Amino acid sequence: MALIGGKSGAPALPLTVVGLIGSLLPVGYLHVVSVGKLSPVRHTVSDYIFVDGGSVLLGAAALLLSAASVGLLVVLVRSGLPRRGPVSWLLGLWAAGLAVAAVFPTDPTGVPTSFSGAVHRYAGAVMFAALPLAGWLVSRTFTANTAVRRFSVAAGITSVAFMLSHVALVRPDGGAVLLGLFERVLFVLLYGLLFALAAVAVRRGVSS
């Protein structure tokens, strides 16, 4: 695999960081061009597929983030993370969930759930649970890193809040629809966690 880059795995780390940053660009662009069309408080990031060009851009962002996450897993394994341990499986589930969510788009708000929409939602539930748990396990068993632990705990709590916020969609008295707000906060925390994990790899000498 080209990302591994020999014994040290050094090329994988800069490619991973570039992939993480690159995955943010299409989403940032979609936020700008959708002003006045979609609400960042009510609508999820997945809803940007309904903006002109959104399907391609959002799919590319998700696949790039998935690839970057696989690269991150490679460098962490190269730095001593057990290849077949629970963290590797959870990071793999996160990356796979992103890819599946990209292939199976969501449904428009208010439309009955289709097969694609159901797969998208389940993939999202898996990935939003897997990455915070993986980060927490890393901070407990692999490196006592404060940033990794704090991002993991904050992301885990926000993930639960995001899941619970779906109640407003299915119950008339469920309260204000805050799906988009919770999901965007969650993504900020998840990206923070991914960059913190990359920093752990740097400190363990992967890039040397």
Automatic annotation (TrEMBL):
Transmembrane segments annotated in the record for this chain: 12-36, 56-77, 89-106, 118-139, 151-169, 181-202
Keywords in alphabetical order: Membrane, Transmembrane, Transmembrane helix
Keyword Transmembrane: yes
Highest taxon listed in the record's lineage: Bacteria
InterPro entries: DUF998
The name this protein goes by in its record: DUF998 domain-containing protein
